[in-house]
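U., I forgot to send this yesterday:
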Amino acid sequence: MNKVRNNRAWWLVLPMLALVAFSAIVPLMTVVNYSVQDVFDANTRFFTGTEWFVKMLNDPALQAALARQFAFSMTILAIEVPLGVGIALLMPKRGIRASLVLILVTLPLLIPWNVVGSIWQIFTRGDIGLMGWSLRELGYPYNLTSSPVDAWVTIVIMDVWHWTPLVALLCYSGLQAIPEAYYQAARIDRASRWAVFRYIQLPKLTNVLVIGVLLRFMHSFMIYAEPFVLTGGGPGSSTTFLSQSLAIMATAQFDVGPSAAFSLIYFLIILLVCWVFYTAIMQMQKDRQAGGPHE
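Result:
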């Protein structure tokens, strides 16, 4: 007996497809078109093939920016993911305390990106900023404008303060979804706190950790407003990331072809790394399930 397929359901999907085509596919195809051309003005352009891609891949300044970008993103993930999991484990599970803690944890996420940079710019000033003044009073010569180390550490701390709550909230929602029966069984077996985390909580957090890792990597790899407002990419080019290099190339220098090729390379790097992260995390989950508990 043949099933009757109702194709009218496609009408429910068409508005979303139109929205995606307008907001993503059409601009992407436009960038692809510009990336193989040398654009002088609206009516004057020449086909260049892969020339801009080769030039961008061999540009020492962009290679240095890519290295800084990877270093920043890996540092952010190494700090924010474990810290977010730890905060989620410490958060109250129910009651008025849980509601209050959720509000407090969420507050940094409500602040716009450019405002975050302005807040930390004031916070780190040596004359009126609490952080800058305190460090100087303790004898440390803190200076964002002359010390690359100070600039880097400040941007990392700023990002950790701003975005660790996202990881914590994702993990908290995953912990709340674990049935109480699992914990009761662990108490009966007299499982240690570490065993509960390793064999009950961590496997149940895998899916939300995948989301958290991918979101944090994508955003940290595209970070722009916060370091631009805080350091302007300095001192020198020590905090100039890929997004700032791309913005300068596209808007200040108006190199349409090279910036289009650069943005496509940027996009493909993000897709590739996200795929690697997703594949690695899911493979680790499969290996853990195949091994089973040994404690």
